[in-house]
Specification:
Largest interface: A-B, 124 and 124 residues
CATH class of one domain in chain A: Alpha Beta
Radius of gyration of chain A: 23 Å
Catalytic activity (chains A, B): 4-aminobutanoate + 2-oxoglutarate = succinate semialdehyde + L-glutamate
Cofactor (chains A, B): pyridoxal 5'-phosphate
CATH superfamily of one domain in chain A: Type I PLP-dependent aspartate aminotransferase-like (Major domain)
Helix content of chain A: 25-40%
Strand order of the largest sheet of chain A: 4-12-11-10-7-5-6
Distance between the termini of chain A: 38 Å
Number of helices of chain A: 15
Shape of chain A: globular
CATH topology of one domain in chain A: Aspartate Aminotransferase, domain 2
Oligomer: homodimer
Organism (chains A, B): Spathaspora passalidarum (strain NRRL Y-27907 / 11-Y1)
Number of strands of chain A: 17
Enzyme class (chains A, B): transferase
CATH architecture of one domain in chain A: 3-Layer(aba) Sandwich
InterPro entries (chains A, B): 4NH2But_aminotransferase_euk, Aminotrans_3, Aminotrans_3_PPA_site, PyrdxlP-dep_Trfase, PyrdxlP-dep_Trfase_major, PyrdxlP-dep_Trfase_small
């Protein structure tokens, strides 16, 4: 029996389309009512999580959708997973919820065990972790670690701060508040707080009206598809983009302490780059004494057919920091260099230092992925799905441009001709019972759970064909 | 029977001091072992939360401390509170844990109820809430709301962004990324991310080596104690500090969009200011078209004898944004002006938009506080305790300078002559069975739970006397 069937004996066999409109009557009432106390303008529909099961999400109007969006890529093991249900009822979880520790000062005796579970699925070469609360938080804490490390390299790891640093920092002035930068890429998404927002560059709406650090943006490769027919052109594109990074290191007005990059630019359009490109970044950071931060918030935790997306690239040496969130339901960063632990206590610190309740869940999720080899399953199902989508593409090339994500499990995307066509497609898919999401302005991204199997792929492809055949 | 006895029939009658050193053997082993995977240099002791109960926290060496620090002011209703235990086991909580929604896109049908519970204890005049994940996150989201609002005032609430804004923002340049500031105060603490860090000004260690926004710092009043003997001098101090704020509005190199202030500067030393000072800030922000943000991360949720610390000031009109975290176990901000909801969707947005599991807990905490009027109880117990501490102060004036927090419930602090004396006192208190924290360099702060009663105050005062009598 497949793992999905084991977890979810009651999983629906197919979507239920109960209403003509999406959102329908009850969802609309719910959205309006919720809107009185909370910004509900982004709500697609009001969900009924009690009735959601496995790969299917139910709404309050009786629709049951096959969910290939999964809470913006963040449900790992399906809705109402029985193993997580058990974890949620455990004594350890209950205590983590009601006796939330200030983890940096008063960890419980199970803290080490909780953290070690997460480390069991750390990327190769990483043996330490620091915990956070969201992807943006994880990235910003990784920036802090990067800046601390960068300055420690200059002044000596154990050197005390100068009196000038200690006084100037209270006025937000150098040298205590140094002028340093994180380099990121056009079309990248790394979060929406102020420093993470300064590295985000996918859509203006994410950051308009927010003051920003004047940090540099390099260009991320824009490949021609299909990849195997465009090898030379794409190689040139890698070289062009790496040269820009190199140039920015040499010319940017303030020193660049770290390079931040997604293994696949997700929110920004599922833009892929080669192992050679990433190794090039690794080499440039080493050459210039900067750190390499891999943002695995969306690509991590099995989604690309390996536990961590960057493991497809065999980077040597491994990245310095790897941030995570979403499918782990818990956030933070992995690292291995002991000097990424700040030289003095209380520098990387805050009241909660993460949430043990969510960390317990992350450990359990990691365990299940390893136990059932769900990364490999995602790779297998993704290969099956990709082939079927190639067939659809050859029938409807207008509506499935630049199909991408081959050999990246179910982390698959394609483009339509423009935003209007893409948005219509997303809405139309609801009318055939599929909840599906977009990325960039014109693209569709698949982000199913790790218990998405061939039978679900068949339903998805049939639904896509049904919609496209009506165009 | 008192509410504490009702909740905790098994609460210890007194601390247990089982070891000479704190931390002792097992804690030290645990700290070293935890340190291999996590930065454990800030750990006081390894706690045994299973054995912790009510106002008492146990460590792994058999010590049981009366806890007047409460996870850096963030345990609201005592350890292993039975009501929260029930909430943690509820179906609603279990689903919130295992089916974590992307709240802005796919809220569950109970989302409105969960949010409304939190709104039931909103500060007077606030009828909307936006959720976050930590105090720093809450403050930064409040900054975003402030900057969005400020720019909307200039361009018109429903006006589209200009093409220049849309293109410049992708390069982190004005006008899309405008040069705007949040004004905060010297000795303030508002978090340790990059924008919140730029408003924090309590200790250099919180922000050294982090790039910062060049935002202004005004001066927060430094009162002479006891307050009733220094009325005139303190009034002058208010006027002096307000004049600085006014001056910064007129002279700062970039426009100030908001003023951020704690009702009592907590981390920075329990620095108090008068209702008149805060009303002055309110008036200045109105005059200059800026928002007033009250950071209630530490002062909120009953701790000062009212649900919200700023309710002591009767501000008119009420503050524009009130941020919360800690004792609510959930974070976010309250507001009332509909124009603080951004003009377009997806501006104040992120994957999770808070954590329903923690929001359910916040609602339950609020309910219990109202049901048992725990703010009033804190006021009553605080008055009792303050009087006793005044008596201690008259015996040991050297070790209890500037006793402060009268009429602010158990939100009490005092200073010693320097950091060394303060640090020694904190350690010595452990040897008589009390877990107690500091603020600023030279001060002691009391932050017990809301179920701290007269009997606990007696134990605390006796312990303090025991320590001081040995000096």
């Amino acid at each position: 029996m497949s793992i999905c069937s084991q977890y979810f004996p009651e999983e629906p066999k197919a979507p239920v389309v109960a209403t003509q409109e999406h959102p329908s009557v009850k969802s609309k009432v719910g959205i309006a009512s919720l809107g009185k106390v909370f910004d509900s303008r982004g709500v697609y529909f009001v969900a009924d999580y009690q009735k959601s099961n496995g790969n299917y999400i139910a709404d309050v109007d009786g629709n049951v959708y096959l969910d290939v969006y999964a809470q913006i890529a963040s449900i790992p093991l399906g809705y109402n997973n029985p193993v997580l249900h058990e974890v949620a009822q455990s004594d350890k979880m209950i205590r983590a919820i009601i006796d939330r520790p200030a983890l940096g000062n008063f960890p419980g005796k199970d803290a080490e065990e909780i953290i070690s579970e997460i480390l069991k699925v750390a990327p190769k070469g990483q043996d330490k972790v620091w915990s956070a609360l969201s992807g943006a938080d994880a990235n910003e804490l990784a920036f802090k670690a990067t800046f601390f490390w960068y300055q420690a390299q200059k002044r000596g790891y154990n050197t005390e701060f100068s009196s000038e640093e200690v006084s100037s920092v209270m006025h937000n002035q150098a040298p205590g508040s140094p002028e340093l930068a994180i380099l990121s890429f056009e079309r990248a998404f790394h979060g929406r707080l102020f420093a993470s927002g300064s590295t985000t560059c996918s859509k203006p709406i994410h950051k308009l009206d927010m003051p920003a650090f004047k940090w540099p943006k390099a260009q991320f490769p824009s490949y021609k598809y299909p990849l195997d027919a465009n090898v030379e052109a794409n190689k040139k594109e890698d070289a062009r983009c790496l040269a820009i990074v190199e140039e920015l290191f040499k010319t940017w007005s303030v020193p660049i302490a770290g390079v931040l990059v997604e293994p696949i630019q997700s929110e920004g359009g599922d833009n892929h780059a080669s192992a050679e490109f990433f190794q090039g970044l690794r080499d440039i950071t080493l050459k210039h004494g900067a750190l390499l931060i891999m943002d695995e918030v969306q690509t991590g935790v099995g989604a690309t057919g390996k536990m961590w997306g960057h493991e497809h690239f065999n980077l040597s040496p491994p990245p310095d920091l790897v941030t995570f969130s979403k499918k782990f339901q818990s956030a933070g960063y992995f690292f291995h260099d002991p000097e990424i632990v700040p030289n003095f206590a209380y520098r990387q610190f805050n009241t909660w230092c993460g949430d043990p309740a969510r960390m317990i869940l992350a450990g359990a999720i990691g365990q299940e992925i390893v136990k059932h080899d769900l990364s490999s399953q995602a790779a297998r199902v993704g290969a099956y799905l990709f082939k079927k989508l190639e067939a659809v593409q050859s029938k409807y090339p207008e509506y499935m441009r630049d199909l991408r994500g081959k050999d990246r499990a179910t982390f698959i995307a394609w483009s339509l001709k423009d935003a209007a066509a893409r948005n219509k497609f997303l809405v139309d898919m609801k009318s055939v019972g599929v909840n599906i999401g977009g990325c960039a302005d014109d693209s569709v991204r698949l982000r199913p759970t790790l218990v998405f199997e061939e039978k679900h792929a068949d339903i998805l492809v049939a639904a896509i064909e049904k919609v496209l055949s009506g165009y």
